[in-house]
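Students often ask why we bother encoding 3D structure as a string. The short answer is that it lets us treat folding as translation between two languages. Here is a chain of 449 residues written in the first language.
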Amino acid sequence: MIQLEKMYKFETKSNLVVEFGSENFGLEVIGWEKETSEFFIKLDFEKANDKEITIENIVDAKYNKKKNTLNIKLNEPENIRYMNSRLELKVPHVTEIIAKTENGGISIENLHGIQTVTTENGAISMDHVNGDLVCRTENGAMNILDCNSNAKLQTENGAMKMKNCEGNLNLKSENGAYKLIGCKGSLELKNENGAIRILDSELAKATIINQNGSIYYEFTSIEKGQFKFENENGKIHLIIPDEVPYKIEARNEMGRFHVGLEGNYDRRKEGNKQVIEMVKGSGKVEISVKNKHGSISFMNHPMKEGKFRFDMSFVSDAMDKAMENIPDEYFDKEKIIKKIEKAKKKMKNIKMPDMKNIMAEVMTEVKDDIKNVYATVSSEEFKEKAEQKINEGISKVMEKVQEKAKEQPLSEQERDEVNERSRLKILQMLQDGKITADEADRLIEAMEG
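And here it is in the second language, the structure alphabet:
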């Protein structure tokens, strides 16, 4: 194993422009208080032949004092068989980076200025950067932390994470998952095949469009804003706290609605679409939602991380109590018991994420099953008493489920991995003609529920 290393020093100034290019070398850029710049390179490699290799064969570094530009280009000799590298560039805080690599990652920290980074198979990382970000990668991940920047970020097959960033954010991906935490400003996000999760963010405006993945968005206590959510083959799950003055208009074609917000809502049909409208307070937080083959959920409490499994026997008990005070003479006891048992079976051994959504859907089905009992009797008096008792029992069930779901959180990573794997498999079966669109919709609904 051969080791080479060298330190380059340049008498640069603030407002420096750095151009960096390589095929297989990654680069770490750090801003510091000094006006000068330092470029350190260390290589560990094996040679394929006896031809001599020096740092000068690999590094071409030139500083133009008049233009205050630093150009670094790296060439990998053909007779290198194996190589590890470490490249570190320290520059003044106010520096613009223009970097392009094929297989090397780029990391930038503590800089002010425009950062333009392009890679094919390398990751891109930004930490405490103030200035416009223009980043694109094909197969690498992006990690953007604590940046106050307008950002235009694009990936093809890499995941993207942003945390505590502020600015006008324009994000685009084909096969990557997104996670945004604590971001501010405005957001325009378009994705094709991946989950989108936005947590604890104070965005004033957002347009989020997905095709084959879920959308999960947690609103904070904002007073006004404009939000648009669209999906095709995945669920849309919105967490809207009670204090948010929302105006919601939601349209769904083949998916279901789950509403866990306080207050009434209007529901109607427009052609083949189901439409829900809800208004609370001033209605200055405008929320538009559209979906085709996935559910739309509105809840007032966020999902938590972790795992949960709990005894569902209390559900069966509540269902029994819902009927216990109705006199025997009003119904065919044997038929009632049979239908109740059928409904209770739907709730046994539930060990799934997002219990609040699941139970909302399950209890809707249970209520439908029990209401089918009405067709077996003729007494209007029975129907009134039965419906009253059943609704009381179901309300108690939902309260208990919500309490337990809050206490027992779920695993975010587990949920996302399972959901995305299952959804993509279903879509592949649809594309291969193994199932129909209607069957795909039912499978996705069953997976989400």
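Translate back mentally: Residues 313-407 form one domain. Keep this in mind for the problem set.
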